[in-house]
Amino acid sequence: MNLVKWHELELTREPFGGIMAPMANTPPQSEVEQIAARLRAGRAALGLSQTELCRLSKIAKNTYNQWEQAIGRPQLDQAKLLRRAFGFTLDWIYEGDTSGLPQALALKIMAQEPAKAPRRPTKTKAA
After folding, report:
1. What is the pLDDT of residues 55-85, one digit of tens each?
2. CATH classification for the domain delimited by 31-111, as one of 1.10.260.40, 3.40.50.10610, 1.10.3720.10, 3.90.1150.10
3. Which residues on neighbouring strands pair with residue 20, listed in sequence order?
4. d(CA 6, CA 101)
5. Mean pLDDT throughout 25-29?
């Protein structure tokens, strides 16, 4: 395994004047970002707008929007509202475990994730 030290990365200057590391070398998503991504995927799998999801689950739209933007995350009682309304399990919301989701929902969510096919080595011709 090749480890990359942050101070050895080639940095790029962004148009707004900030400095960002290349995407391939960014640290893993935070827990809040992972929850936000799961909530967006779950809502998309259900085919609902934020407004529709919030109306059906009785969650304030501005609150839910903040969760999808990774500004915060649902508290337990709020996550239970999503569980009751749509079958989102607490294990899936907080940990990403799809095993307890309704099968049709889990399949739709997993279909949204980009395929992670293993890379195969390329063959080179001998000279």
Report:
1. 999 999 999 999 999 999 999 999 999 999 9
2. 1.10.260.40
3. 12
4. 38
5. 55
